[in-house]
């Protein structure tokens, strides 16, 4: 029986692999899907000392598949989420899903039941640096100094720090090594275990800080003191080196459309709405969202991103004094 069970498991794995490969090559044989190009690329990694080549294939639009498999098959469908809109518009959703008002599809935005003005606020520190690659080290140092001040104030038991990249997260951790024991960092343990530990620590009166990437901004439901302060590293635009992002961008340019407006900015709005949405989960929730990106106040698109968020009061405190160490010299930045 044991041998039979093992044989069946091996057959299931083989069938699953065959099905995946069949779908891959079927999609790879197409030049377009849903009227848009299909992204195809290969990647290489090392596992157990051996090189592995992986082939990837992704359609950048799936509206035809949704029309065939879902929209035509079910008479009435209700799609609900806090992040169906970006920039206060359903345009991106319509483009990606194939749903259209002209076809009789209805799009409705309901008011939030929460009193965001009374329950929370957004804090945008007066950072000296924008969070761009050339200033990353200086910006992370400033962010770490601000974060340290919030921790030392002891106003919040449960905190969440969200990063746009793993590289930035690791550099941040290098600046707060003395606080490492209170940090529950993505990758240390499975996410569900980190959240369990966070709950136990806060419920016992101990301070706890979850630290992670965009996946920690999705589906995380911590109410009240379990999460009363959210720290956001920067506006999370799509990664410019992603093959899917590159393919869609080139395709949009060929149609004389502006990728930043159609692709990058709506995606950033989706991400920011999700991140900010971690704070107020019920009528008893309260707290602050700290966003370390002054582009929200200095760039034209920043106002549009803010306008798509719940209506929180906004504060702009000065940043603490920071000493940024580099290979060549030390740069001392004083409080404004």
Written overview of the protein:
There is one protein chain. The chain has 2 domains: 33-110, no CATH class; 116-315, P-loop containing nucleotide triphosphate hydrolases (Rossmann fold, 3-Layer(aba) Sandwich), CATH 3.40.50. It has a 7-stranded parallel beta sheet with strand order 6-7-5-8-9-4-10. A 3-stranded antiparallel beta sheet has the order 1-2-3. Strands 11-12 form a two-stranded antiparallel sheet. The chain is 39% helix and 18% strand. The longest helix has 27 residues, at 2-28. By secondary structure, it is α/β, with parallel strands linked by helices.
**Euclidean distance between termini CA atoms:** 74 Å
Structural class from helices and strands? alpha/beta
Principal-axes geometry comes out as globular
What is the strand content? 15-25%
Q: How many separate structural domains? A: 2
Describe the largest sheet.
7 strands, parallel
- The percentage helix is 25-40%
Number of helices: 11
CATH topological fold name of the largest domain: Rossmann fold
Q: How are helices and strands ordered from N to C?
A: HEEEHHHEHEHEHEEHHEHHEEE
* CATH architecture type of the largest domain: 3-Layer(aba) Sandwich
Indicate the low-confidence ranges by residue numbers.
326-336
Give the integer mean of the pLDDT values. Answer: 89
Jot down its keywords:
single chain; 336 residues; alpha/beta; Rossmann fold; 39% helix; 18% strand; disordered C terminus; ATP-binding; helicase; ATP-dep_Helicase_C; EC 3.6.4.12; hydrolase
